[in-house]
Amino acid sequence: IMAHPLGFYSKQGLNVEVTKTAGWALIRDKMINKEYDATHFLSPMPLAISMGIGSNPVPMNVATIQNTNGQAITLANKHKDKRDPKLWKGFKFAVPFEFSMHNFLLRYYVAEHGLNPDTDIQIRVVPPPEMVANLRAGNIDGYLGPDPFNQRAVYEEIGFLHLLTRDLWNGHPCCAFGTSTAFIQQNPNTFAALYRSVLTAAAMARQPENRELIAKVIAPAQYLNQPETVLTQVLTGRFADGLGKIQTVPDRADFDPIPWQSMAVWMLTQMQRWGYIKGDVNYQQIAEKVFLLTDAKKQMKALDQKVPEGPGGAYPKFKIMGREFDAAKAADYAKSFPIRKL
Questions:
Q1: Does residue 92 form part of some domain?
Q2: Structure pTM?
Q3: Which residues, in sequence order, are CB contacts of 92 under 8 Å at separation 6+?
Q4: Distance CA 180, CA 290 (A)
Q5: Closest-CA residue to 115 (of 339, 341, 342)
Q6: How far apart are CA 166 and CA 308, in angstroms?
Q7: For position 240, what pLDDT does the model report?
Q8: Judging by beta carbons within 10 Å of its beta carbon (0-12, 13-18, 19+), is residue 19 exposed, middle or buried?
Q9: Hey, which of 133, 169, 189, 275 would disulfide with 320, CB 3.0 to 4.6 Å?
Q10: Domain residues for 160?
C-alpha cells in the first residue's frame, strides 16, 4: 500500500491503481479471472490456489513477504479472567480466511493447549475490518487477526491483546506480494519494476524512524481508513494492551521481504494436518515453484539491499512455540501432532 502514496511505483515508470477489495475470497477470484494483475495476498493463498485447493488450480507466485509478525489474538473484555486457552471450549473465533497464517497459528496455538480447533472451538471467516464490530456485538469471543484491527479493539475499549503472534513464532510470515505465473511470463519487465517498488517500500518500512510517516500515509480512507494513533501504536511497537499496561515491542510488526521456502513448507504441513490437503505432498517442489526466493534475492541485490544468507540455504529452520521446524523432515512433522484431522 505505502508504495503508492510514497510514489515508489511511479518512480519505476508504473501507473498502478491500488484497489480496496472486500474479502480474501474475492481477491482470489479476481486474481484467477485476471481482473487484477498482482495483489497483496495472505501468504498461504498462492500455495492453495496453485494446488487447486478451494478453487480451480491456477499457478500463482509469492514474490516477497510483505510483513512478518504484526498479528495478535484479541479477546473480548469479558474474558479477562480466561487467559488460559484450556478455558476456551465453546468460544467462537474469527480469522480472515481459511488459507491464512491466522487460521494456522490459531489452530496450532489452541491444539498445543489441548483443544481440537475443529470440535472444541468455532472458527469463522470474517473480513478483518468487520472483526471489531463482531467483537462489540458479542458474535465472537475473539479473533486472531491482522493489525491494526487488534489495536483498534483496545482503542475502542472492547477487547484486549491476549498475545502477539511474534510470541508464537518470531519472524513468521503473514501477507505476501504476488501475482500469477502467467503474468510474470507475459510481462517480465513490468513484474521486475513492481518487484523493485515493493522491495523499496519494505526497506523503508524496516527502519524504525520511518514508522510514524508510514502510519500517516496509510491511515486515510482510500487505504486502511483507521485512526492514525492506532497505526502508530502498531508500527512503533509502543502500545496499550487493553490490560492497563503500555508495552514496548519494537518488532511487533516487521517487514522482512525474503520468501524463505521453509515458510511455504510449514504452511503445507499445516494444510495437511488440518485436512485441506489429502494424501502425500511434495513439499519442496511446491515451495520452490510458488515462493520465488531466487528472484527476490536477485532483485534485492540490484537495489543494493542486504541479502541474508543463513545456514540452511533456502530452508532455514524456525521455532514455533519453542519447537524447531526443519523442512527436511516435513512429512514426519505433519504426522507428529496428536491433535490433527485424521
A1: yes
A2: 0.97
A3: 121, 122, 124, 139, 140, 141
A4: 10
A5: 339
A6: 20
A7: 98
A8: exposed
A9: 169
A10: 70-171+240-247
Residues 6+ apart with CB under 8 A from 82: 75, 88
Number of domains the chain is built from: 1
Cα–Cα distances in angstroms (integers) from residue 82 to residues 77, 89, 218, 244, in the given order:
10, 11, 34, 16
DSSP 276: S
What's the CATH code of the domain at 167?
3.40.190.10
Averages of pLDDT over each 10 residues, the chain, 342 residues: 93 95 95 97 98 97 97 98 98 98 98 98 96 98 97 98 98 97 98 97 95 92 92 97 98 96 98 95 97 96 91 92 97 96 82
Indicate whether 329 belongs to any domain: no
Asked, for residue 259, whether it belongs to a domain, the answer is no
Dihedral-angle region of residue 42 (phi above 0 means left; psi in -120 to 50 means alpha; beta otherwise): beta
Partnered with residue 155 across adjacent β-strands are none
What's the sign of the alpha-carbon dihedral 13, 15, 20, 24?
A: negative
Distance CA 32, CA 44 (A): 15
First to last CA, the chain: 40
| Confidence (pLDDT) at 309 | 82
